[in-house]
Predict the 3D structure of the following.
Amino acid sequence: MCSTQRAMSSVRSDFMEEMLDGSLRLMDICSVSRDLMVETQEHVRDLQSCVRRKKVAGGGDQLDVAVSGYVKFRKNMRKETKKLLVSLKSIDGRSNAMRRVASVGVSVLKSFLELLSGRQSNIKSKLASVLKKKCNIEDATNELERLDSAVRGESCTRDDIQEKLEEVEMSIGGFEKNLEGLFRRLIRTRASLLNIISH
């Protein structure tokens, strides 16, 4: 009987450790995702401001600087999101219990990171499907990809770029609420796990 209790206690301890480790890793990924979202919003707003200024009073140099800064940021962000997607995959590939517990968090984070990295996401933004595309950009798969194509290409007008910037801003705004809620739930889950372990 004593050896059975020890074995059960060991299994429970391993399970709880896995849950704690997984929740901490999800919180880290969520935190980095939120930081990337804030940086993306800053770059989008900077581009919007420069596009508006250029419309009003020839601020071409500022727009060129903002576009090159945005392109450099997107290149670095793609590398970061690929690393985060690999980390998410390792969390999702763990035990069946961890997969069930973390499935919603992993899905939300994966969708957001795929949006940022430019990979095809299974969950498409409802807002983006409602908005009309003015530029003919065939290979773009999401709002950020369409914006990337617009700022790199010369076939789009400032109005087209402005429209793409607004699409990105709306899309990120939707994810912002989801990431905030997910982060709060992860904190509550972790606190509950710690309470269970301490009692």
